[in-house]
Amino acid sequence: xxxxxxxxxxxxxxxxxxxxLDWNFTYGGQGVGNGSLSSFWYNxxxxxxxxxxxxxxxxxxxxxxxNIQKYSHLKLAHQGSQNxxxxxxxWWCGSLLMVIGETGNCxxxxxxxVTLIAPLGCLSxxxxxxxxxxxxxGNLRSSDLLGVTLAFAGTYLLVAFAPNITQDxxxxxxxxxxxxxxxxxxxxxxxxxxxxxxxxYKRKDMKHIVILLTxxxxxxxxxxxxxxxxxxxxxxxxxxxxxxxxxxxxxxFIIMIASCIFQVKFLNQAMKLYDMTTVVSLNHxxxxxxxxxxxxxxxxxxxxxxxxxxxxxxxGCFLSFFGVVLxxxxxxxKHLQQSYIDIGEIPDEKIEATRxx
Length: 357
What we know:
This protein is mainly alpha-helical. The chain has helices at about 1-10, 10-25, 40-45, 45-80, 90-110, 115, 120-135, 140-160, 170-180, 180-200, 210-240, 245-275, 275-300, 305-330, 330-335, 345-355. Residues about 1-15, about 15-35 and about 335-355 have low confidence and may be disordered.
C-alpha cells in the first residue's frame, strides 16, 4: 500500500490531467443531447452559446468594418484627395470596428470549441455582400440571396451539431496536448507539406492560388490552436485561476503572433495576383477546413461524437461553404464597370459637376 501511495504521489500531476480530461469529455454521454439543441445542452453550455454569440457578432462587425474601409477609399478616390487613407476618420472608424470584431472572435475561441467557431466566418462574407448594397451601392443578385440563405442554414446546423464538449483549457492541459503523439504526427506532416509547397513557391516560382492559400491554411491551423490556448488561459486567469505564469502560455503566444504575420504575407500575395472575391471565398473554405482538422486533432473535439451528428455537422459546413461561393461568384467582374458611390452625394464632387455644366 505504501508503494502504491508513493507511486501515486509521483504521478499526481499527470493523473490529475488525465482525470480532468476524462471528466470534461462529456460529448455523447447519456442525457447530454448528442449535439441537438436540448434544454440540457442550453443549461450545460451557456459559455458555448456566449462564445457563439460573440463570434457571430464579431463577424458581422468585421463585415461592417470592411465596407466602411472600402467606402472611405472610394470616397477619397472620387474626391481626388492626395491625403493618405490613414488620415481619414472614416477609415479609422472601420479599423476600430475590425479590432472589436476580431476581439470577439478571439474570446469566442476561448469559450467554445474551435470546430464551432471557425466555420462561422461565413457570416462575415455573407454579411459583407448584403451590406455592400447599402454602403457601396452594389446590386443584390438572386444568387446572393440564395447564398446568404444557405450560409445561415449551414450556420444553424453547425451550431446544432457541433461537438458538445466542455473542457477548461488550462496550461497543464495545453502542455499535455502539445506533446501528444496525435499532434506531433500532425505537425510533422504539416511541416513536410509546408516545405514542399514553399519549395515550389520559392524555387519554381509557382504562385498558383491553391499553393498560396494552402500555405495560409497550414499556418492558420497553428494560429487557431494557439489563439484558443492563449484566449482560454487569459479567461481562466481573469476568473482567478492564474495561467500566465506557465511557459506554455508564452510559447503559444509566440506561435500565434508568428503564424499570423506569415499568414498575412501569403494572403497579401494571393490578393495581389488574383481577384479579391476568389481569394475571400477560397480562403474561407481552406481556413475553416484547416481549423476544423486542428481542433479535432489537438483538442480532440470530436471525442465520442455520433455518426449522425458528425454527418450533419459536415453537411452544415458544405452549406456554408457553398453559400460563400454563391455570394462571391463573379461579383468583382459584374460590378467593376459600375460606380459604387453616387458622386452627386459627395458635396465637393457635386459642386465640380455643376460648374462643369
